[in-house]
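Q: Sequence in, structure out?
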Amino acid sequence: MFINELMTIEDLAAYLKVSRRTIYEWLKLNKVPALKIVGQWRFKREQIDAWMEQHAHA
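A: Exactly. Output:
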């Protein structure tokens, strides 16, 4: 996976080892950095990595 590649919900769920339902819940609560492109959610890996690092120290 390239660092600038956009991930789908399925990709992100696999990457974080959580369910798709968890990702949808986080989206609903604005907990995870995301882009909505043509009605579909996409995630930048570098933003996800930074988000995880930020929350690991919280």
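The chain has a mean pLDDT of 91.
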